[in-house]
Automatic annotation (TrEMBL), chain A:
This is ABC transporter permease subunit. The keyword Metal-binding does not apply. Residues 94-293 form the ABC transmembrane type-1 domain. The chain crosses the membrane at residues 12-30, 98-122, 129-150, 170-187, 232-254, 274-300. Keywords: Cell membrane, Membrane, Transmembrane, Transmembrane helix, Transport. Its main location: membrane. It is a multi-pass membrane protein. It is found in: Cell membrane. Belongs to the binding-protein-dependent transport system permease family. Signal peptide: none annotated. InterPro entries: MetI-like (IPR000515), MetI-like_sf (IPR035906).
TrEMBL record, chain B:
Pfam families: BPD_transp_1, OppC_N. It comes from the Bacteria. Residues 106-295 form the ABC transmembrane type-1 domain. InterPro entries: BP-dependent_transpt_permease, MetI-like, MetI-like_sf, OppC_N. This is Oligopeptide transport system permease protein OppC. It is a multi-pass membrane protein. PROSITE patterns: ABC_TM1 (PS50928). The keyword Transmembrane helix applies.
TrEMBL record, chain C:
Keywords: Signal, Transport. Gene3D superfamilies: Dipeptide-binding Protein, Domain 1, Dipeptide-binding Protein, Domain 3, Periplasmic binding protein-like II. The keyword Ribonucleoprotein does not apply. Residues 68-447 form the Solute-binding protein family domain. CDD domains: PBP2_OppA. Residues 1-25 form the signal peptide. This is Peptide ABC transporter substrate-binding protein. Its main location: periplasm. It comes from Jiella sonneratiae. It is found in: Periplasm. Belongs to the bacterial solute-binding protein 5 family.
Length: 307, 307, 529
């Protein structure tokens, strides 16, 4: 088991390296630099700044220097938010992204599975159709459209919830951003769950169990649920990735200082170190989450476990 | 109705496994079969008609209305919809007719989606066919690369590409197509592998037919199903990606527009000029819903066992 | 520093700290636009950073409620006969927030640090009027002691200038002229700006800073003005990019003061939030720059034709909606040491159709017409406002037979292109740093970075040089006005409108006075619960 985990982790190092290299060169080839701004700097000052951050070295030297520093777990300085190192800034932003993404992840699973079970058990009835309709809407309406509408309705008009900000990090502040972030995934998971449960309920071993006279509720919870969950679990890996990166818009609209927002701002500001730092963290998180999902998958599916 | 969790699952389950035992040589009948099933699916057929109408409107609509998409009406800035002035959808903040802009925007959104989808289909087919046909170490190296690409956080790379190709949106979406071909490559590889073993391929080989004609004659016809489904799933994904980039301020160059740009402009006017959001938003949601139903219907048609 | 578990936990601790901060007594919550990039006055660039910095630091001069310069740390000052030497007497009670006194040495240290090339201060050039400052900053003089700033004693500071400048007090209110705590920087170096280390000499001090979220300030009990004079306990400066989302938070009462607003909501604000929208003249110019080094814009006729055909009167009221005044001159109204209305285009009062006719005529003379249309590109950086104006102006030029392709790029790319002369017509803007017309006129001087169009006129340059040595203010104003007229006659660039400051202020806030510099230091504001 442990060796499986270690092997998986080791195999991701080249992936991360490729991503770093790609990011590094794409960013440097992109037009504009971190010190281009509305008020042009005298060439001498620009030269001072570039020398200060070693941007005047050949690109390959800069690349190797970056890798060297990375090997010592140093992510370097931020060119824009000058008083913070990249590592420190990510350290500040990461908890927000994790809390936001984690809550949305939980909501997506719980909400999606419950809606899916309901849809399967009452399938082709009005409740099922209602859920399907909501799910479809959740899937096709972009989140930068859902968020303002929810803000306007629940924050401004009704005044039930804060419109934005993190406040004290309590549920009140989390509710809207988490819902916006989770909505499309609730939709997807509920559809997956529904389809898979219907299929399972039609399979022979469930028919046998029902024939034996076991109650419907018990059949669903004890026998059908676990096998039916497999496709849901296999979706959780990609879902975790979508949730993490999907928080970019949500963080902007709700004014939450997560690393998604850092990433976008850093890319626009050509804050090279910051972009690379956030990409590394995103990749690491996604790899980790996928690994967890694989372990959960093994637990659910005996066939995989034996392999 | 089964709504897919993600594209990879939807396609690979439907095709990769099943194709191994499919009868070869008469691919048309499979397609005809599928079409028959599709015609029986009312939801999908309605969606198809709706989608066709939207496409038709986007293509011929601009020629039928009295206003063009770029000339301001100096007497009507941000004017609400009105039958008298002929601005049936109202005007935008620059006094341009919103109906004309929605029609053009739909056209552009579809165009970028088609570009990205075409690029990814072409690359995917070539990559998969080569990988499957050559086999051996090359194959496993190529597939390893696909795995690596899957692990990259898609949206982060879209943003990096945007930084790179910010000026030309069509080029940008061609580049985005280069991030999307992975699923296609896998399916094609699977089909190629199973096909390679067939007697008639060996016979053709023995008769001296070159590799490429074999791929062309025997594999490509079988790809119609996966390509159509793949497109119906990719197009909405790209349309949403495009709208996401527009929200970040990277839409197409003015005076052209896209649905995403129109919506993100409309969101700012929420509460003050609702029509600016309502019309483009309505078209986008309708279009995406239609595509979702079409994709659903197609998959059911090509893969009857998983209903 | 590597990423460690400790940074992680300290960040978590920080978010708990946030929770406690929420229960502040009289906290003003401000939508402050961009992210504050540094608290170090030598490493800033944005007006949103100035809002924070002006509350926590105080220079020799500071601003009153109307943004007029008043003595700050300086108690009194003397100017020498030739206007070159300024001697400042510092207040005895001026102190840093750790109780240490603010000394003349702090100022000397700050100015040297600002000019030191190693600091790489972005706005060092603003203080180039100080003797030898430019040469030191550009590395021509290595000895920092050559800088014309001297501490006579602990509380007396002497500054020598290159040439006399009448607006010097106004320039001294700028953040590049703030003192920095020498005693602290000597001890901890660059880490002095970290929360926990930082000490400031203004009415407030920073107590919390979450990048991407906010900076929070609290009263500085050592400030010489006395903390009992301050009504507001602290300000939460929010970093937010999405102004529409910010406005929704304002509507819900979560934000008390917006320094920007979603343009589409202008009518809504006027109708539903009466008295809360403050739209006032602002010392800033929005303009288009022509690349005069390449055809077709090396031809003044083409430039004039485009300028004539720009229907400025509709931009403010219709395209932007908030009624920005049309710019027919280069220097915004209301600047010190200058007539209220400086030079204007000769044709400024002509009706628009007549201007268009003249523009067509000029284009014809320049060799363009229906059979030889003019194809140009118009570049602007990503923003709703810039987009709308560009679209409108392109439509105004179209009847002349000019085909405009719009090029929208991110702000970094836009200014890189401007710097490299890679454009034809491009959007630019300027906000005054100090209260004097040369602030704007310098933009068109040869050899200045911000002169993106590379327009060059000998007479113009020599007039500006002459003005800089003229002590008689009236005469100086006359010379400057002459220069402005030359720039307008030759259509050096295309002024479009003068900015309005746009603040949405909650009725809870009192003492908010509109002014041309859009500076509203918190010490002058009060707030009812």
């Amino acid at each position: 088991m442990l060796s499986f985990v270690l092997k998986r982790l080791a195999s991701t190092i080249p992936v991360i390296l490729i991503a770093i290299t790609a990011c590094f060169f794409v960013l440097r080839l992109a037009p504009g630099g971190p010190f281009d701004q509305e008020r042009a700097l005298p060439p001498e000052v620009m030269a001072n700044l570039r020398a200060y951050y070693h941007l005047d070295d050949p690109l390959i030297v800069q690349y190797l220097r970056y890798l060297g520093r990375l090997a010592q777990l140093d992510l370097g300085p931020s060119f824009v938010t000058k008083d913070f190192t990249v590592a420190r800034q990510i350290g500040i932003g990461l908890p927000y992204t994790l809390i936001l993404g984690g809550s949305a992840f939980l909501l997506a699973i719980v909400g999606g599975v419950i809606a899916g079970i309901y849809g399967a058990l009452y399938h082709n009835r009005s409740g099922d159709w209602a859920i399907a309709a909501i799910a479809m809407t959740g899937l096709v309406v972009p989140n930068f459209l859902v968020a303002p509408i929810l803000q306007l309705v629940f924050g401004v008009r009704l005044g039930w919830l804060p419109v934005g900000g993190w406040g004290d990090g309590s549920l009140r502040f989390l509710l809207l951003p988490v819902i916006v972030l989770a909505l499309p995934h609730i939709a997807r998971i509920s559809r997956l769950m529904r389809g898979s449960l219907i299929e399972t309920m039609n399979s022979n071993f469930i028919k046998t169990a029902t024939a034996k006279g076991i109650g419907r509720r018990r059949v669903v919870l004890k026998h059908a649920l676990r096998p039916a969950l497999t496709p849901v679990v296999s979706y959780l890996g990609p879902a975790a990735g979508y949730l993490l990166t999907g928080s970019i818009v949500v963080e902007q609209i709700f004014g939450i200082p997560g690393i998604g927002r850092y990433f976008v701002n850093a890319a626009l500001n050509r804050d090279y170190g910051m972009v690379l730092g956030t990409v590394i963290f995103y990749m690491a998180l996604i790899v980790l989450l996928n690994l967890l999902v694989d372990l959960a998958y093994a637990w659910l599916d005996p066939k995989v476990r034996q392999r | 109705m089964t709504l897919y969790a993600d594209k990879r699952r939807a396609l690979e389950e439907a095709f990769a496994e099943r194709d191994a035992e499919m009868p070869r040589g008469k691919p048309r009948s499979v397609t005809r079969d599928a079409l028959r099933r599709l015609k029986a699916n009312k939801a999908a057929m309605t969606a198809l008609v709706v989608f066709a109408l939207i496409v038709l409107a986007a293509i011929v609509g601009p020629y039928l209305i009295p206003y063009d998409y770029e000339t301001p009406d100096w007497n009507a800035f941000t004017a609400p919809p009105s039958l008298e002035t002929g601005h049936y959808f109202g005007t935008d903040q620059n006094g341009r007719d919103l109906l004309a802009r929605v029609l053009y925007g739909t056209r552009v959104s579809l165009l970028v989606a088609v570009i990205a989808t075409t690029v990814s289909v072409v690359v995917g087919v070539l990559y998969g066919a080569v990988s499957g046909f050559v086999g051996g170490r090359v194959d496993s190296a190529m597939m390893r690369f696909v795995d690596v690409m899957y692990a990259l956080p898609y949206i982060l790379f879209v943003i990096l590409l945007m930084v790179m190709f910010g000026r030309n949106v069509f080029l940008l979406f061609a580049a985005i197509g280069l991030l999307e071909w992975l699923t296609m490559a896998r399916i094609v590889r699977g089909q190629t592998l199973s096909l390679k073993e067939k007697e008639f391929v060996e016979a053709a080989r023995a008769a001296g037919v070159a590799t490429f004609p074999i791929i062309l004659r025997h594999i490509v016809p079988n790809l119609l199903g996966p390509v159509v489904i793949y497109a119906s799933l990719t197009v909405p994904e790209i349309v949403i990606t495009e709208s996401f980039l527009s929200y970040l301020g990277f839409g197409v160059q003015e005076p052209l527009t896209s649905l995403g740009t129109l919506i993100s402009e409309g969101t700012d006017a929420l509460g003050a000029a609702d029509w600016l959001l309502l019309f483009p938003g309505g078209v986008l949601v309708t279009m995406l819903l239609a595509l979702a139903f079409i994709g659903d219907g197609l998959r059911d048609a090509f893969d009857p066992k998983d209903r | 520093m590597g990423f460690s578990f400790r940074t992680f936990t300290s960040a978590l601790a920080l978010s708990t700290l946030l929770a406690m901060g929420a229960a502040h007594a009289k906290e003003l919550v401000m939508y402050n636009g961009g992210d504050v990039t540094s608290l170090d006055p030598h490493k800033l660039s944005g007006d949103w950073e100035d809002r924070v910095e002006g509350d926590i630091f105080e220079g020799l001069f500071t601003e009153d409620a109307k943004a007029k310069p008043i003595p700050g740390v300086a108690e009194s000052y003397k100017t020498s006969e030739d206007g070159l030497t300024w001697t400042f007497k510092l207040r005895d009670d001026a102190a840093w927030s750790d109780g240490e006194p603010v000394t003349a040495e702090d100022f000397v240290f700050a100015f040297k640090r600002l000019m030191d090339p190693k600091t790489a201060a972005q706005y060092a050039y603003l203080q180039y009027p100080i003797k030898n400052a430019e040469k030191i900053n550009k590395g021509e003089i290595k000895d920092l002691d050559q800088l014309g700033v001297k501490a006579v004693d602990d509380k007396t500071l002497e500054i020598t200038l290159e040439h006399p400048i009448p607006y010097y007090p106004s320039l001294l209110t700028h953040y590049t002229a703030y003192p920095v705590p020498k005693h602290l920087i000597d001890k901890v170096g660059d880490a002095w700006v970290q929360i926990g280390n930082i000490v400031t000499d203004g009415p407030y001090k920073p107590v919390e800073w979450v990048p991407g979220s906010h900076v929070l300030t609290a009263k500085n009990e050592h400030w010489h003005g006395g903390k009992e004079k301050l009504d507001i306990d602290g300000v939460r400066f929010l970093s937010m990019e999405d102004v529409s989302a910010g406005f929704r938070r304002y509507q819900a009462g979560e934000i008390d003061l917006m320094t920007d607003y979603p343009k589409d909501q202008f009518k809504f604000i006027q109708e539903n939030l009466p008295g809360q929208g403050h739209f006032a003249p602002f010392a800033g110019l929005y303009y288009y720059v022509f690349n005069t080094s390449k055809p077709p814009f090396d031809d003044a006729k083409v430039r004039e034709a485009l300028s004539l055909a720009t229907y400025r009167e509709v931009i403010g009221p219709k395209v932007l909606g908030s009624g920005e005044p049309a710019a027919f001159g280069w220097v915004p109204p209301g600047m010190n040491n200058y007539p209220e209305e400086g030079a204007r285009f000769d044709w400024a009062k002509d009706p628009y159709p007549q201007r268009v006719e003249k523009a067509k005529e000029l284009l014809k003379q320049a060799g363009y017409g229906p059979d030889k249309p003019l194809d140009i590109t118009l570049s602007y950086n990503t923003s709703d406002n810039h987009k709308r104006i560009a679209v409108a102006i392109a439509a105004m030029w179209k009847p002349l037979g000019i085909n405009v392709s719009l090029v929208n790029t991110e702000v970094k790319v836009h200014y890189a292109n401007l710097r490299q002369g890679d454009f034809q017509v491009a959007r630019a803007g300027w906000l005054a740093d100090f209260n004097d017309p040369v602030n704007f006129l310098d933009l068109l001087k040869s050899g200045i970075e911000m002169n993106y169009g590379r327009w060059s006129n000998e007479e113009y340059n020599s007039l500006l040089d002459k003005a800089s040595t003229t002590q008689d203010l009236e005469k100086r104003a006359g010379i400057l006005e002459q220069a402005e007229k030359i720039a307008l006659d030759d259509d050096a660039a295309l002024p479009i409108y003068f900015y309005l400051s746009e603040n949405i202020v909650s009725p809870k806030i009192k003492g908010f006075e509109d002014n041309v510099f859009d500076k509203h230091r918190t010490r002058w504001l009060s707030m009812t619960e």
